[in-house]
Design a protein that fits this description.
302 residues; Rossmann fold; 2 domains; 6-stranded parallel beta sheet; 13 helices; 10% strand; globular
């Protein structure tokens, strides 16, 4: 039995403790203390796991049990730290929320410094280098610290070589499939419930590229993702929306544009803006890829 499953079963034992009232064969009485109970269930976990699951389902229903299992993936304190490390081969394997983002490469460190220092930052690099994650995480950090009043998310509605036709719903519903990567990061940093509330209050705004003309974005953190799918004219229009006390980030991979050859203006805009002070152009490379080791290998030959 995997260690994670054993931990969940141990947690189920603890939840079932007030109901089960298991007798001690040696002493002929109920377990006298919670500590003794925890000590004894360690050896019974493997054998009684199916029965525990059925008991929990009978009390709470299958749906509640499955939801609880998904939400609690931690190993119970019954197991030692050595057991946790041996189960996954490294320390700190458990996924936890990290308030402060730490760079995992020199390129990411340069990007984080630029996001903290400059008003406009362009992040260019291959897939898996953390461009979108770092930009959105810094946007959430700025919102939490009160440096900005809202987050504006913008991404061109360009399909990756496959057209699905017209999508149902309002503007936000139509853009939802394109903004899924950004929503994933926001959900990880804020939580699903708070993210939904901030979207309803327009603290986090979905701004289509087509409707940005004429706007001025003040007191905001603007994230423009997949900027390689914008033309030169679109990028010029987006950049000139910059208002007071606003941070703007443009992230994209010039080598993975879904536009026709020569239509993307991201590389041209980045080259021109690199000559201007107080604008950072950060180029990430294959050494900054943190997604999967094979991603860097495949991009080196594709």
């Amino acid at each position: 039995m995997p260690v994670e499953r054993a931990g969940k079963v141990a947690s189920a034992w603890i939840d079932a403790y007030p109901v089960l009232q298991i007798k001690d064969r040696d002493e002929g009485s109920c377990f006298g203390g919670r500590g003794l109970f925890l000590w004894r269930i360690a050896g019974l976990t493997r054998t009684l796991a199916p029965g525990l699951v059925q008991l929990k389902e009978a009390q709470l229903g299958k749906r509640s049990v499955r939801k609880a299992s998904r939400s609690d993936g931690r190993i119970h304190a019954l197991f030692s730290e050595e057991t946790r490390q041996s189960a996954h081969g490294r320390e700190g394997w458990e996924k936890r929320y990290v308030k402060n983002i730490r760079p995992k490469s020199t390129g990411q460190e340069a990007l984080i410094d630029a996001l903290d220092r400059e008003g406009v930052t362009l992040a260019l690099g291959p897939a898996g280098t953390g461009k979108t994650f770092l930009a959105v995480a810094k946007a959430v950090e700025a919102l939490e610290n009160g440096r900005v009043e809202r987050i504006v998310l913008c991404r061109p509605a360009v399909d990756a070589g496959e057209t699905l036709g017209f999508l149902p719903g309002d503007v936000e519903a139509k853009l939802a499939p394109y903004l899924r990567p950004i929503y994933d990061v926001l959900g990880e940093r804020l939580g699903a419930k708070r993210l939904k509330a901030l979207l309803a209050e327009d603290v986090i705004e979905i701004a289509p590229v087509a409707f940005m003309r004429g706007r001025t974005l003040n007191n905001a953190f603007v994230v423009i993702d997949e900027a390689q799918n914008c033309t030169f004219a679109q990028l010029k229009m987006l950049l000139t929306r910059l208002g007071w006390r606003t941070t703007m980030v443009l992230a994209g991979d010039p080598d993975q544009s879904d536009l026709l050859p020569g239509m993307s203006g991201f590389s041209d805009v980045a080259e021109r803006l690199s000559r201007i002070d107080n604008i950072s152009v950060v180029s990430l490379g294959e050494r900054d890829i943190i997604r999967h080791p094979l991603v860097a290998g495949m991009l080196s030959v594709l």
